[in-house]
Amino acid sequence: MKLGARILKTGIAIILALFLAQLIELPSPVFAGIAAIFALQPTIYRSYLTVIEQIQGNIIGAVIAVVFVLMFGNEFFIIGLAAILLITLNLKFNLENTISLSLVTLIAIMVTPGDEFIEFALLRFSTVMIGVFAAFMVNLVFLPPKYESKLYQKNTSITEEISKWIRISTRNATEHQLLKADIEKLREEILKLEHLYVMYKEERDYFKKNILAKSRKLVVYRQMNTTTKKALDTLKRLHRYENEILHMPESFQEAIQQELDCLINHHEQVLLKYIGKIKPEAAIMEGHECLNRKELFELFLSQQKDFVDDNKQILYHMMQLVSIIMEYGEHVEHLDTLITSFHSFHKDDQHLEVETKIEE
């Protein structure tokens, strides 16, 4: 079992929250530890937003708790009504993420009223907020997340898996059910890839130079993700129409095989180009140059005369296959252009940091 940064940070945040609450001699420091668990977030920016939201949500919870106890007491029924009101207000003010912790604050204040109730309520609120700030400090200082290297690694691993299956599929060597199961897994990996992109997008830079580079990187990674998804779409079409492809002339099958070999080679080389493994101006192709879109379309049209009306359905399916291959090629070319442009503007930029992390 791998001990990840999120697990370590959760433990450190709980320790820090409990230590600070005990250091200040606050009663029931356990509430600080609970607050730290709720407040820990995957990115520094989200952690900052959580602090702001939790302050608002817990103020609402504390105020409702104090008002209800002073006006109605602290019977179980009253606590339930206060919780309903708190949830309603949090939803109204778009503070859904604070509901759990603000309910903890409300219950912690309402269950133990006494002669010095207002002071007790302030102490409970302070204890919870110490946990929130402890989680923020841990997220800021300890093991700050670096989603760029994770995003690049995930992209390359998915692309390698798709490329492997495309090569096998074009040579009619796949096991149908096995490939079907792997396509489902790849769909799930694409969803994780998109989540990593969102996490990387939320990371904030505080220097103008880095902000400009980050904006260009976001464009590159967005296109990188789109190209990978188009590669998966191509694999799905190959899998869906594998029988129809076998009914096509051998010359057409060989041309599609060579074209896809060329495209996936180009795709893999473009990813290497981004981290400096290949020179930006390089255009390395194996065997032959990829067909341009006009040549590929003409190749498809040339097959029409060989099919009678009864086999037009096969031709219709091949049109879909050729269409997705053309789209895939367009996205690979666009990604190549973006990466070449990026290198021309940021020759010494942080893409080298990605390469270093991968090698480590």
SSE layout and pairing:
Layout: H1 5-23, H2 30-39, H3 44-72, H4 76-92, H5 99-110, H6 117-141, H7 147-169, H8 176-202, H9 208-240, H10 242-246, H11 250-274, H12 293-301, H13 312-345, H14 351-359
Helix pairs in contact: 1-2, 1-6, 2-5, 2-6, 3-4, 3-5, 3-6, 4-5, 5-6, 7-8, 7-9, 7-11, 7-14, 8-9, 9-13, 11-13, 12-13
- The count of strands amounts to 0
Largest sheet: none
One letter per element, helices H and strands E, the order comes to HHHHHHHHHHHHHH
CATH topology of the largest domain: Methane Monooxygenase Hydroxylase, Chain G, domain 1
Second-tier CATH architecture of the largest domain: Up-down Bundle
**End-to-end C-alpha gap:** 20 Å
Q: In percent terms, what proportion of residues is strand?
A: under 5%
| Uncertain ranges | none
The total domain count is 2
Radius of gyration from the alpha-carbon trace, in angstroms: 29 Å
Overall geometry comes to elongated
Number of helices: 14
How confident is the prediction overall: mean pLDDT? 84
Kindly provide the name of the CATH class of the largest domain.
Mainly Alpha
What would you call the structural class?
mainly alpha
Walk me through this protein's architecture.
- There is one protein chain.
- The protein has about 350 residues and is mainly alpha-helical.
- The chain has two domains: about 5-140, no CATH class; about 145-360, Methane Monooxygenase Hydroxylase, Chain G, domain 1 (Up-down Bundle).
- Helices cover about 75% and strands about 0% of the residues.
- α2 packs antiparallel against α5.
- The two termini are about 20 Å apart.
- The mean pLDDT is about 85.
